[in-house]
Amino acid sequence: MRRIPSCRAFTLIELLVVIAIIAILIGLLLPAVQKVRGAAARASCLNNLKQLGIALHHFHDVHGVFPASGWTMAGPGNPAGRYVGWRPLLLPYVEQENVQKLYDFTVHWWEGTNLAAASVPIRLFVCPATPERGSVTAAVAKPPRPAMTFPQPLAPTDYEAIMGVQPTSINPHLGNSFYNSANRFAVMSRNSRVRMTDITDGTSSTIMVVEAAARPLVYRNGRPHPHLSNDQGISWADSEGPFSLDGASADGQQEGCGLPCSRAMNGKNDNEPYSFHSGGAQFLFADGHVEFLRESLPLTTLAALCTRAAGEVVQYD
After folding, report:
1. CA 268 – CA 266 distance, rounded (Å)
2. What span, in angstroms and rounded, lies between the C-alpha atoms of 42 and 299?
3. Which of 74, 111, 217, 317 is 20 to 30 A from 139, alpha carbon to alpha carbon?
4. Is residue 61 part of a domain?
5. What's the pTM?
6. Tens digits of per-residue pLDDT, 251-282?
């Protein structure tokens, strides 16, 4: 008689052991994958800020000054004296000539064809580490801009000009009235005309642009708060998005509250530096270099880095 060979199958226990091993390997692999993705997003974000730095320097080469954080009167790049933000002024220097042709500098940023331009996503203005924030289809009034419903969702930005520091917010941390209306400003502020030589604190130690990610959706300590309203930073074309440094409370619910508000970044994203990078945020300096500053940085140190001519001696790791 011919012998039929037996065929051995997996037992249920063996199958469960294999599944458990695969699950453990996946569990070990996921953090590594997330870490790699985070590093890639951080590198891409850093490159975006570097490109913005180059564009800002090109604007300076052409006009002799850096762009204002926002114009409300006639000035370099804004001869008509309309409400214009700093990012529309950079369009010809970031290879966005087609969007520049669509943007009309003879009217405010929310008028005419400018809303069509503002709806065009520009990758350079967005950090890939930022989560989905939803569409911006309406905005409350912020005079002279009226309350509006936009025909197309506005395209976002995660980078904003820092205008300086708020003396009433920072001075309590210093124990004196060091900052005032004369020395509180950064490189770009409202209707400013700052030349390279005006940055007497040094271009390598003066911040121009910060991360202010995910606006206008409000975040507190990494958690979205869609029930809170925010009328600033609603688009890359928005001229009302720039802000001055105040400091935030530990829970991210307050800003500019004196000594309790000692957090330098990543507490609240509306009108304070904020990123989705682990442990800190990236900052563009006036000489064009980008640094990752850690969340543990003292608020007073970040404040000193945000002024262009206050004469502070800054030391930080």
Report:
1. 6
2. 23
3. 74
4. yes
5. 0.88
6. 999 999 999 999 999 999 999 999 999 999 99
CA atoms within 13 A on the CB side of 235: 26
Give the amino acid at 72: T
Q: Residue 185 domain-assigned?
A: yes
Q: Burial of 301 by CB count in 10 Å (0-12 exposed, 13-18 middle, 19+ buried)?
A: middle
Q: Is 129 helix (H, G, I), strand (E, B) or coil?
A: coil
Count Cβ neighbours within 10 Å for each residue of 54-65 and write b for 16 or more, e otherwise: ebbbebbeeeeb
Q: Does residue 239 form part of some domain?
A: yes
Spell out the alpha helix ranges (H) of the chain. Answer: 12-63, 86-89, 97-102, 114-118, 167-174, 299-305
The pLDDT of residue 41: 87
Averaged pLDDT for residues 25-54: 81
- Reference 233, options 216, 246, 219, 217; nearest CA is 216
Query: Is 147 within a domain?
Result: yes
| Other C-beta atoms lying within 10 Å of the C-beta of residue 244 | 22
One-letter amino acid for residue 297 of the chain:
L
Report d(CA 285, CA 163) in Å as an integer: 13
Q: What is the CA radius of gyration of the chain?
A: 24
**216: preceding bond cis by omega (within 30 degrees):** yes
HSE at residue 104, side-chain half, CA atoms within 13 A, is 10
Residue whose tokens read 């001696």: 313
The pLDDT of residue 195: 98
Strand partners, 185: 164
What domain count does the chain have? 1
The torsion angles phi and psi of 21, rounded to 5 degrees, stand at: -65, -45
143 is in which domain, residue-wise? Answer: 37-69+116-305
